[in-house]
Structure formats: C-alpha cells, structure tokens
Amino acid sequence: MAPGRRPSAARRRLSGAAALALTAGLGLLAPSSLRRGLAFLPPTAVAERGLSATAAAAAATEVEGRSGLRRPAVLSTLAAALGVSPVLPVQPAGALFGLNDFPAPPDAAEPPPDAVRTKSGLAYKVLTPAECSGSDCKRPTKFDKVYVDYTGWQALDGKMFDSSVQRGKPANFGVGQVIKGWTEGLQLMSPGAKFRFWIPARMAYGENPDNGRPGGLLVFDVELIDIERGITPPPAPPDVEAAPADAARSPSGIAWKVLTPGKPGFESFKVEPESSVTLEYSGWKADGELILSTKLTGKTAKFVVKDFNIKGLAEVVMLMSLGEQRRVWIPATLAFGESPGGGLPGGPLVFDVKLAGIQ
Question: Active-site residue among 124, 147, 149, 161?
Fold first, then answer.
C-alpha cells in the first residue's frame, strides 16, 4: 500500500433479518422470536450456513477471523449466519511457526515496569508516537473501522502466531469486533502510532483455548494506519449511573422517567404480554458503554412483549402509551444478572425506549 494512501473499503449495512438476529443475540428476544426472524431468509440460505435457531439463540459458536482478531461470539455468530461476511477472512487460528517468523520482543514475557497499565489489566508502551499532537489527534471508537499492521506472540513461549506484516497486507476490521484487549487498546491510539500491548488471557482467549487459538498472555505490536468513521452512537445519559431521586419506581425495583408523553387520545391502547410492539431504543451499561441501539441500524424493532428476555424492559413497556418515551433503570436481577457470560452485558442496564407502535 502506498504511504499515505487510504485503502478502499465498502461499508456493509445489516439487513432487517440481521438486525433482528443481533437483537436476539443480546437477549431481547427469546428463541421463538428468533425463529420467526429467520423466516426472512430462504430455507436454503439457513441450511447452507449450518444455522439452527437453537444454536443461533445460544450464540455458542464463535466466528473466527485471523488469529488475534476474534469477533465477539454473540454478535458475530449471528451476523455471519445471516450473511454478513466477517470483516476478516475465516481461517485457522493456529499458525505454523516457520523460519520466517518475527522473533518475540525481549520484553514479551511480561510488561516492563515502565509500561502503562489500565484498570482492566491491559498494559502498553508507545513504540512510535502518533503523527499528531494534542487536540489534533483523532482516536477510533468501537463503532469505527481501522486499518492496522500487527504482529502477535504468545508470551509463554515467544511463538509468533499471526502477523499482517508478514503477509504484506494491512488488516481492516471494526474496533468493536475483536478481542477485548484490542478493542480497548485501539481506542488509545491515533494514526501513525505504534504500540506494544500485553493482553491478559481474560481479555483474549483464556488460558487454554481450543481450536488452536493462542492462550495465556498475548503480546502485540500494533501500528494504526487509518480510521474509517462509523455511525455516531447516541451518547450515554448524564444520569446513566443511577436513577435520580425524582424517578418513579416499581415494587420490582425498576425506576423510570417519562421523557416524552404519549399521544393524546391513545391512552386506551394498552400493551399486553401478547402485544406486538414497535420500539425505538438505546441501551447502556451503568458505566455508559452502549450495548445496543436502533439508531445504529436506522430502523425500528418489532417484538412480542412476552418474548422479551429483559424482563424489566417488558414490565415498563406494558405501562407505556403509544408515542411515549421513557428512560428506564433496570436492576441486574431483571436484566441478565451480574455476570451472565456469553457476551451478554452484566449488571444494571439503562434504556431510553419509545413505544412507536402497538398491534
């Protein structure tokens, strides 16, 4: 690639079926609703991808990109199954350690004392500063796409397991579509910078992963070449951490505030468990991290209330009137729990939700 020249890349847009499946992957829909969503696809398309409704709803199979660059299991499995190609070609994660492999850095075994450590446990050093300074530096968000050159080693034995540098072609992928250590680390960088990252096992593939994936502490040298901006996500509410004192509360522990009242004259249109509702929503964890939003797809979402897996959201929607918008604080017990696993968000959740339709 010529210096300073930005690689071309086609933006992908999710189909209505894919958007429905992604929503199901985060647990807003039960498996029965996912099966209805799969009806958008021809039967042959589902069969060719080896997708069963149960497997998709569980999202237990991880779509693999290049080793060192894994997509989150829940979102990517469903997206790929519905025909959204992985950003990176699917290939075996295990690499043959050949004579042309790059040797591991001398400090690969563990982060040196002068490495910066974040709260999550990620450690890094700046090998080459960015080509900018101060406010002129731009950094990617998890909704952006990046172009990078990288090489990865296992800290335990110094074996190189993947390298775009060795292949002679920079990699491009979504910041939010890789292992946790990459997602966090990339957002610390600006174009032109080269960092060395020490990523603990819990932010990568674990201590003893299967399918030939690298285990334990991983070390990456990463150069950020360019950023392709994605959709601007909705900002977290200022009161995302906790419901304010003037919020209404239910006996179950849910709190809410009415942001926009419902349409006059439609108060008699009640939402029941069997109702099919059309919603516009954005959801965040208590730390302000966006987990899901219809604004990212530009489309509303349609659900049957009884199929909601977030029980707290179902409870509040049944209290709303047509056109009403509420901010809802849902305790972990009425969401996915504190530590649900499987890529689902844990702890209390906050949703801005608008009831756009009732059937």
Answer: 161
| Catalytic one of 147, 150, 303, 351 | 150
Residue 173 designated active-site: no
Give the closest residue to 292 by CA, choosing from 272, 309, 275, 315: 309
In the residue annotation, 179 being an active-site residue is answered as yes
150 as an active site residue: the answer is yes
With bands split at pLDDT 50, 70 and 90, how would you rate the model's confidence at 99? low
Please identify which of the residues 179, 227, 330, 358 carries the catalytic annotation: 179
Cβ within 8 Å of residue 304, ≥6 positions away: 33, 274, 275, 276, 277
Angle between helices 16-25 and 73-81 (to 10 degrees): 150
Both structure tokens of 258: 């009415």
Q: What's residue 98's pLDDT?
A: 52
Indicate the pTM of the whole model. 0.58
Which of 299, 306, 295, 349 shows the shortest CA–CA distance to 327? 349
Higher per-residue pLDDT: 53 or 106: 106
Residue 318: pLDDT band by 50, 70, 90 thresholds? very high
What mean pLDDT do residues 115-140 have?
Answer: 94
234 closest CA partner among 358, 354, 58: 354
Count other Cβ atoms within 10 Å, centred on residue 241: 15
Alpha carbon dihedral 313, 175, 190, 198, in 10-degree steps, equals 100
Q: Which of 197, 220, 308, 351 is catalytic?
A: 220
220 is catalytic: yes
pLDDT digits (tens, 9 = 90+) for 264-291: 988 888 999 999 999 999 999 999 999 9
